[in-house]
Amino acid sequence: xxxxxxxxxxxxxxVSSQRIAGxxxxxxxxxxxxxxxxxxxxVIAERFGASRIPVREAFRIxxxxxxxxxxxxxxxRVPSLDLYEVHTxxxxxxxxxxxxxxxxLPHLTDVQIDAMxxxxxxxxxxxxxxxxxVLDRDFHMTSYSACPSEQLLSATVRLWNSTQHYRRAFxxxxxxxxxxxxxxxxxxxLDAIRRRDAExxxxxxxxxxxxxRVALQSHPELFTTGA
Length: 227
Prior knowledge:
There is one protein chain. This protein is mostly helical. It contains 10 helices and 3 strands; from the N terminus they run ααβααββαααααα. The chain has helices at 3-7, 14-29, 41-48, 52-64, 83-104, 110-124, 129-144, 150-174, 176-194, 198-217, and strands at residues 38-39, 69-71, 75-77. The chain has a 3-stranded antiparallel sheet. Helix 6 runs antiparallel to helix 9. Residues 14-81 form the HTH gntR-type domain.
């Protein structure tokens, strides 16, 4: 065996990496790992019965999605944001997501819009915050799913991921009072999408995101003072 071949790392198994990334994505979005919490490669590898190589690749995937920060010196952790950062990210979402929806709207099929209707019906019949967050994400991501720009869609998903924890914390505080507002806004947005009215859809979505941003600002206790 040559010196070169002896030092070459084994090839990454994309199936294992995607499996681990998928499970960790669900765990982070579901609140199992809190902002600022560190994830050790060896611990995660043991959890999934894998070597460190697919775990390292899974970390890289999640970093591109805004769900993890990886530093050569500090390792991997779930991003932790302060109030200003979340406020800024929401302002970015207010501008970016209406554009993503506008680009997606001409390409959305009736089947996809019907799927949004069914998701909204499940949201209205649900009273569990964790389940609501999953369904709410499905609702909006379905509306964006036909966007032909991969860059635009990726940026939208990354911003959504980055603010997920703080939205969950807020919804736990707000409870059912917030649910009625969300449902009304979703219905307005769904109606605009069915009518293929990009102007109304943009306006309703921007207001929907802005309302959450303003509400979050009234709860500074949800945020770190810096990480």
